[in-house]
Amino acid sequence: HAHAGHYLEQNADSAQPSSGQLGGDPGTGNEHLSVTSGLRLIVGKMQATPENLQGLAGYLNQTLSTDFNVRKPAEKYLEQLEGTENYALLLLQLADMESADMTIRLAAAINFKNFVKRNWRVVPDEANRVSNTDRAAIKKNIVGLMLKTPDVVQRQLSDAITIIGREDFPNNWQGLLQEMVEHFRGGDFHKINGVLRTAHSLTRRYRHEFKSQELWVEIKFVLDSFATPFSELFQSTMQLASQHAQNPPALKVLFSSLLLICKTFMSLTSQELPDHFAEKNLEPWMAHFHTLLTTDNKLLETDSDEEPGPLELVKAQICEIVAMFAQKYDEDFESYVQNFVQSIWTLLVTTDTKPKHDLLVSGALEFLASVCERQCYKELFSNESTLTSICEKVIVPNMYFREADEELFEDNPEEYVRRDLEGSDVGTRRYSACNLVRGLCRFFEGQVIGIFSGYIAVMLQQYERDPGKNWKAKDAALYLIAAIAMRSKTTKHGITKTSELVNVPDILRSQCIAELQKPDIMSQPILRADAIRFITTFRSTLPKDLLVSCLPLVAVHLKSPSHVVHTYAAHCIEKMLVLRDAEKAPVVALSQLQPLFRTIAESLLGIFKLQGSDLNEYAMKCLLRCMSAMQDHLAPFAESLLVNLQGNWPKLARTQANPTLITTSLRPCPASSETPARRTNNGPKNSRAPSFPSWRVYS
């Protein structure tokens, strides 16, 4: 029998996957099966025969079927084979077979990756799921096989190498890097990119792992084998990119390599700056980074307004690298910082507002924010004209609400809310611009606030002149105010300390409350959302009476048809009810909530009837918080509330809903049939407990 690590060439035609369904029962588990009913095993070992390859291809083909009754038995049968010796090697062999259909090759690679993910780790006191013979054969062959397969297959096998590497590298796979770097000198960028992609995956964890001697020993091992050929590859790739500057296909391949090189460089330098990249060794890297940042080649741009091109991706990664160097390696980076500040400044003022540039612009803004908040670099920004230019030409333009943001607000409001309330707006232009404002305020607070005060006044005047046309000016002004006012912030309490130079309560009264008091709650939904967001953000710093006076206004907006507005309103009320004063008493007293409770509860239940908000977790959290705050006074409403909530449970069970929402929805359900009315002396004597359906699984 041929060994599974060898590739069958002479019988390629007979190894083609069958086009029809395989006969027989895929899950029989018989030791000897015909090729039409299973794969031939001899003493628990799968042989690398053309018949077995054909049978395996047939089962993989069945796993791609849309028919559950075809797909599920095939998946189950292949899962049973995972304990069979040589099974993984046959998957690799099939992934490499040029005569096989590409869908089968890709399916084989994906199944191999999942096999490794499930079985490679050795668990103490458990049987070894992969034989030592198979482990050795896989590690011996997988790198070479990965580098010769098509890109879609290569990516899956690269991921598999990364998974194996997490367990075995470097101690039990010391030859991995050496085998990989041998392909740097061949000039085949399909192979080079395969190596780089794998190196990036292997080293990416260095960015976030805690420092330890074991980790540093591993990094040193990697650097000793990898750093020199890696640096040489960067140099040669830059030369090739210059030579092929007018060759679009070649450029795209080369810039995909440069992107992977930049990502791997960042991983290798995230813990500490090693000698391989320090002092004189750092000079060529920084010189090439600066060259790439200042490169402008239209051939690398995409036609799409949404999708960034390879050059934008490389520039964005370089911005991330130099931002890290500005924060962590002052002495080494000091001689380069001024050139990068100037180049990134130029990049920011010349880049348009298309979404495809968002990653680059936000990275560039974060770099400036990293530099300006460091004591050793503050002189770069001390000139009044420099500060004015940054505020006018960089920050203000990136504060404005764009057409793409408006489309997100209207067409995908759940994502709009998620980005803001759940913190996934990290990396957006506006978020990074706010970070730059806060960075500048660290050393130049008075000057920055003075400059922005003029712009804010003009923006608000523009809005007053024509609210229907100039609403974006007020939107930008509110975000600017929040950025310059904030001094400290926590997730639980929002902004906890504000600048003494910004009168937040006055701004709230004149700009936010005034907006919320306008009678038509359907008008200007974005500005209404901004006003509610402003209250939520500054809730911990506002005078108690002012904050409580906002509660009825916010409650009215629970009836807004805008998903963002009523979600922000629910979130705001929930956060207001959590607040405690210095004596640990609720800021919103029971006597202040009680008159509004019926209106708030009915509005929140109404939200669940709106299309797109029927599973609104913020409304559910708000309702639960209100019920909790009402304490014994909840009794008159308890049955009605629980009956209404009960109606949502089957829908929750049938959908892939947010687990937080499911948990929150079940909290109001009492542990027994007693209602709050029965458990207290305040409820009506004849209060009847609502009947609850017995627990069952909805399908």
From TrEMBL:
Q: Which InterPro entries match?
A: ARM-like (IPR011989), ARM-type_fold (IPR016024), Importin-beta_N (IPR001494), XPO2_C (IPR005043), XPO2_central (IPR013713)
The answer to keyword Cytoplasm applying to this record is yes
Region named Disordered: 1-30, 663-699
| Protein name in UniProt | Exportin-2
Q: Does the keyword Cytoplasm apply?
A: yes
**Family from the record:** Belongs to the XPO2/CSE1 family.
Q: Which residues form the Importin N-terminal domain?
A: 74-148
Q: Which GO terms describe its molecular function?
A: nuclear export signal receptor activity; small GTPase binding
Q: Which UniProt keywords apply?
A: Cytoplasm, Nucleus, Protein transport, Transport
Its main subcellular localisation, reduced to a broad class, is cytoplasm
Q: Which organism is it from?
A: Geodia barretti (Barrett's horny sponge)
Query: Which PROSITE patterns does the record cross-reference, listed alphabetically?
Result: IMPORTIN_B_NT
For biological process, the GO terms are: protein export from nucleus; protein import into nucleus
Any one GO CC term of this protein is: nuclear envelope
Biased composition of type Polar residues is found at 11-20, 663-689
Spans traversing the lipid bilayer: none
Subcellular localization: Cytoplasm; Nucleus
